[in-house]
Specification:
Blueprint (H helix, E strand, L loop, with lengths): L7 H10 L3 H4 L10 H19 L3 H7 L2 E3 L2 E3 L4 H10 L18 H35 L2 H13 L4 E4 L15 E5 L2 E12 L10 E6 L12 E6 L1 E3 L5 E4 L2 E6 L10 E6 L5 E5 L6 H37 L1 E4 L8 E3 L4 H33 L3 H37 L10 H8 L9 H13 L5 H17 L4 H23 L1 H6 L1 H26 L5 H18 L3 H9 L2 H5 L7
Parallel strand pairs: 3-6
Antiparallel strand pairs: 1-2, 4-5, 5-11, 5-12, 6-7, 7-12, 8-9, 10-11, 13-14
Helix pairs in contact: 3-6, 6-7, 6-8, 6-9, 8-9, 8-10, 8-11, 9-10, 9-16, 9-17, 10-11, 10-12, 10-16, 12-16, 13-14, 14-16, 14-18, 16-17, 16-18
Length: 586
Amino acid sequence: MTAYHAPVDEMLQVMREIGELESLSKLPGYEDATPDLIAAVLEEAGKLGTDVLDPINTTGDQEGCTLENGVVRTPKGFKEAYTQFVEGGWNAVPFDPDHGGQGLPWLVATGTAEIWHGANMAFALCPMLTVGAVELLTTHGSQELKETYLEKLVSGEWPGTMNLTEPQAGSDLAQVRAKAVPEGNAYRISGQKIFITYGEHDFTDNIIHMVLARTPDAPAGIKGISLFVVPKFLVNSDGSLGERNDLRCGSLEHKLGIHASPTAVMLFGENEGAVGYLVGEENRGIEYMFTMMNNARLSVGLQGVAIAERAYQRARAFAEDRVQGRDSATGGKESVAIINHPDVRRMLLSMRAQTEAARTLAYWVASRLDIAKRHPDADIAKKAQGYVDLLTPIVKAWSTDIGVEVANTGVQVHGGMGFIEETGAAQHLRDARIAPIYEGTNGIQAIDLAGRKVAREGGATMRALIKEIRASIDAMGHTHARLTNAIDQLERATDWIVETYAEKPVTALAGAVPYLRLAGIAIGGWLVVRLYEAANADDGGNALLAQRRRASVSFYARHVLSQADGLATAVMDGSAVIADTPPEMV
C-alpha cells in the first residue's frame, strides 16, 4: 500500500500563481511569509503527514473508536500524533501572535490543512473544528472569554467542537430545543446534541464545546437561538482546571467512513445543568455560529481536494504497478502496466484535472480571505470579502462532489482490487462520502448560492467576478474558446437565476445544483487556465510538473468545460419540470 506524499511543488505553484503569495507577503502582518519560509513550512508539514499521520490512517479506520464508561478511546497512535501536532505548533499557523499564533496567511494554513486531510482525514477533523472555534471567539467573544480560552484553543491544547444538530433539528436549526437558563454570570445548559465530531476523546484534558441553545424567554425559530461556550471541565480564575461540567458522551455513531473520528451523541445537563457562558448577546447565536460554520465549509471543501489527491496518488501508483492486458498502441504480445491503456489514462487524467481545479479555487478563495482581513484599502478588502462570501458554497459543494467522484474513480482504476479493503481505495470513497452532507448539505449550499448570494443582490458580485475573469482571459493574449464559452453560459444562467427568482423562486432554486456545478466548473476552469499559462511561461525548474499540468488542463478544457452547455440547459430549461412536479408524482 503506497504512502501519501504531499504534492508540495504543485501546492507552491498554486500559491504563487493563483494565491498571489508574493503580494500577500506585503500585507501588514504577513511580512515574514516569504516564499522560502512557506516552502519550508509545507515541506515540514509534508513530513508529518507522511511519517506520522498516514501510517495510522488505515489502522485507525480498522480499529475505530470505543466508548467505555463514558470515556472515548481513539485508535492506537492517534493521541500521540495529536500531541506531536500540537507541540509542532501546527494548530497555530494562521492565528494572531497575541494569542500564541504564528500569524501566517490563511493561504498557508489552507495548504497545511490539505496535507492533514490528505494524510488522515479522520484525524484532521479535530484541529479543523478547533480552527473554527478560534475564529468564532476571536470575532464575537468577550474579552473574558478570549482571555480564558483563546490561547489554549490556538495552540490546540484544548480543542473546540460545534454543537448544532439535535435529533429533530438537522439542517433546520429553527427546531433547536436545548435550553439555557440564566444563573448568575453564566447559564445552565441542558439538552441533547447529535453528530458531534470529536465531542469526546482522549487527546486532551479539556474540550471546549460551542453550543446552540434557547433562553427561557427567547422567541421561536432561528431568532431565538443563543450561543454558549460550554467546557468539559470548568476553568478556574488562575487558568487551572476545576470540576467536571455536567455533560457526557451518551454514545458513538457507527458510520460509513471516518471510523477513527469519534462522532458523539452529547448529553448536557442531566443533573444540575452544564455551566455555559454566553457568546455576545442573547438570540444572536446563529449569526455568530455562521462565523464558525463558514470557516468549516471552506475546510470541508478542502477535504474534497485532499481526499481526491490521495485517491489519485493511490490509483496512479496502482496503475503503474498492475500488469494486465496487451498494449493496444504497439500490438505486442507482452502484458503491460494498465496505465498504458487509454481508458485508464482517461480516468487518471479526469482525477488529476478535477483535483487541480478544486485546489486552485480553494487556494484562491483563501488568498481573498487574507486580503479581506489584512489589506489596508477598505474597498479592496470589501471586494475580497464579497468573493469569499460568494464562493464559499461553491468551494464546499463543488469540491466535495469532486472528492467523491475522484475517490469513486480511484476504486474503478483498481478494478476488482478496488472493492477489496486491503488496497485502501475503498476507504477514500467511504471517508469522502460524508463531506457533501455535513456543514450544510450540498443542496443547501446550492440554494445559498443561487438565492442568498446571487438572486437577492441582483447578481452583482457574480457579475463583477465574471467581468474580472473576462479581463483576465483577454490579458492572456490567447484564445481560450472553451473557457470563454463556459463563462458565457455562467453569465446566461446567472441572469436567468436573478430574473426567475424574483417571480418564481421555487423554479429558480430547482436549478440551483446545476448552477453551482456550472459556476465551479467555469471559475475553476479560469484558474487552471491561468496555471496553464504560467506553466508555459516558466516551469519553475520542474519540467515534468509543467508537462503534467498542460496535459490535465487540456483534458479539463475538453472533458469538463464542455459540460457547461448542458449544465446551463439544466438550469434554465430543466428547472420547471422539477418545480412543477408535485411530491406524489416523484
